[in-house]
Design a protein that fits this description.
flat, 4 helices, 3-stranded antiparallel beta sheet, Single alpha-helices involved in coiled-coils or other helix-helix interfaces, alpha+beta
């Protein structure tokens, strides 16, 4: 029994490493070939889905999960800080219009206490 679970964990870790590499390549390739960059991101998502691995937080913020475009601030994404209700970062994909809201109140409180 134990070997099977460690194998699953190994495959998930391997899939996450490959997904990270694909996302890095998509960021590098975006200026040359936008369609290829999107394809890399969609392949990374498919790979993570296949092994039922969670998408790491840092990868979630690097590409649009709706259209697959790399979220490069100023080029393919608009990034704004909003203070209303709760402080958060708003990232808008300039290709499909998908909006991501990322709260940063926790980080702000942790910085104050430190």
């Amino acid at each position: 029994m134990r070997g099977r679970f460690s194998r699953k964990r190994y495959l998930r870790d391997l899939a996450v490493q490959r997904a990270r590499r694909l996302v890095e390549l998509s960021w590098k390739m975006h200026s040359e070939d936008e369609e290829l960059a999107r394809r890399y991101n969609l392949l990374a998502m498919a790979l993570l889905k296949r092994v039922r691995a969670k998408v790491p937080r840092d990868l979630k913020r690097k590409f649009c999960r709706k259209c697959g475009t790399p979220l490069i601030p100023g080029r393919t994404a608009r990034v704004r800080l909003v203070q209303r209700r709760f402080p958060h970062v708003v990232i808008t994909c300039l290709y499909c219009g998908k909006v991501y809201r990322i709260p940063y109140l926790r980080e702000k409180k942790a910085r104050k206490s430190a």
